[in-house]
Amino acid sequence: MRVSSVRSPRGFSRRILAGAVLLTSAVGSVSCTEPAGGQVTGGTGEGWHLTVYYTAVEGFHADTPLTTVRGCPQRDCAFGDELLGAFPASFVDAVRDEGTGRITSGPRSGSMLNWSFDTGFWLDDIPSDTVGRALVPFRSAAADPSTLPSGTAFVIDDCGHEEDGSAIDPAACEALRRTTWEVRDEFTPGLGGDRRLDLYIGEEDGPGFTETSPLYLTGVDARVTVTVTGRADADRQPRA
Please, are residues 218 and 162 in contact by the beta-carbon 8 Å criterion? Predict the structure, then answer.
């Protein structure tokens, strides 16, 4: 993902929405506000909507037909037309949804296939965040910059519940709660939602990850505490 690359909420398409849908829960009052100057005040807020994103792994998608992918063979290129390879269709779909995937076959094995709505596909050696740093599992998070600017650190106090009202797996919630997250990625401004956070959990760990992993969760009415404030103009330098 490049400087202007941004994430869209899971369930529509991570990098560009498939409709003008905004999820802006208004449950509870949130003391995380953005005063003039672009800083966020610390505090505890309820009514957050948590989702997760991950790096797809080609080898877990071998049961779908191959599809040709064209794009940029390196960074600092947009909407290239070079043949990058032929990959399982479900892997390519997952890369479009999540933004990044690890190639496990052919001459590109070990490389990352990344995608952004403003760049298309490109090859990289890392799963990339907004400014070209490597995404860090259980640390990197995406947010609408108008709500939580880059550099904001936070902890999850309560994961809330699933969208259907069911309880979230306790072990999965604990995995999200026992770390400090940092906003290093972002949604398209205005499309992420006032209280939406997307948490990077690393690589998928098997076939059918989105159907079987308790970590692939949605937390409604979650509670979050901001521990370090961020700035709206932080980390906006172009990648090297």
Answer: yes
Q: Is 66 within a domain?
A: yes
Cβ atoms of 50 and 215 within 8 Å: the answer is no
Kindly report the backbone phi and psi dihedral angles of residue 134, in degrees, each rounded to the nearest multiple of 5, phi listed first.
-70, 135
Burial class (CB in 10 A: 0-12, 13-18, 19+), 81: exposed
Q: pLDDT of 103-126, one tens digit each?
A: 999 999 999 999 988 899 999 999
Residue 82 structural domain: 57-124
- Give the tokens for residue 22: 């905004």
Residue 96 belongs to some domain of the structure: yes
Q: pLDDT digits over 121-168, tens only?
A: 999 999 998 888 999 999 999 998 888 999 999 999 999 999 999 999
221 inside domain: no
Measured CA distances, 152 to 93, 99, 123, 145, 222 (Å): 30, 22, 29, 10, 17
- Specify the pTM: 0.81
